[in-house]
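Write out the bound-state structure for 1,3-dihydroxyacetonephosphate.
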Amino acid sequence: MSIEELADIALAMVAPGKGIIAIDESTATIGKRFESVGIANTEENRRAYREMLLGTPNLGDHISGAILYDETLRQSTRDGVPFTKLMMDAGILPGIKVDTGAKPLAGCPGELVTEGLDGLRERLQEYAKLGAKFAKWRAVITIGEDTPTGTCIESNAHALARYAALCQEAGIVPMVEPEVLMDGDHDIDTCYDVTEAVLRSLFSALYEHNVMLEGTILKASMVLSGKDCEDQADAEEVAAQTVHCLKATVPATLAGIVFLSGGQSDEQATRHLNEMNQLEGNPWPLSFSYGRAMQAAALKIWAKDPVNNVADAQKTVYARAKENGQAALGEWEG
Ligand code: 13P
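---
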């Protein structure tokens, strides 16, 4: 695939007023979400839940793509329509999470490095055949007393760059996600410094590995006060610091930036995105790739009656997509 074709996919992912829904929870993670609402973690329940999400009427009005888990990419609706076909017919690009998770980084207590490079070339070729247009790899950076270390930042950046280069070789747009966790009592300035160091390291590694930024999407965490910090920065400051940090580190040739929600409330995630899009002069589209902030309300409704509550749950999915789509334009009214 040519760089122009990759760039077209990347631009479609961040088309004006549209964003991504992340439904790529691993079997263990979806199990935790199901447990919180009393649903058994069976393959059929996972399939039915994801059919509810992906089958939301007119979802493509505000959603450009959905990130799936390996199992989901291979599943179909109850009527036998492959999810990838359902999505393409609705104008929603299929994406696939390809990392195999964040594991303890030897020699760096308390830190994680994301694994999954072994055999990735072959897996990407298969995913491309199954219809995946983009992929995701998530690195996890933890802010603590003595962390993150340079070793952790660089190991994760190196893995992200090798993953991204393999994706482009396979004709798949890489979404690179270095998530700086909200956990901790650090202030927003600490989050800024860590995020800046992480993004500098990431874009340097992408450059070293000849990754074409026009065909790449950054999935970023916002610059926020730690969850347990007494002094919580307001939305205006979050937006100003996040955009400043991105402008200082991310080349303007990148196709676009989408944010993760990372444990923010639905409203915060939407408000922060909206504030950022009200600032002028951003060199790239800023949109969303929310997991929890897209699904949480719908999961609660669906779980109460997975047979009869499908339409009600889908209304909530659509409403969250619409609100976040408006925030991607800076037009959310709250
Ligand atoms: P959250 O929006 O729930 O953080 O999930 C996004 C995601 O895909 C994390 O990798």
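---
Strands lie at 19-22, 63-68, 93-97, 102-104, 112-114, 134-141, 173-180, 217-220, 256-259, 286-290.
DSSP finds twelve helices and ten strands in the chain.
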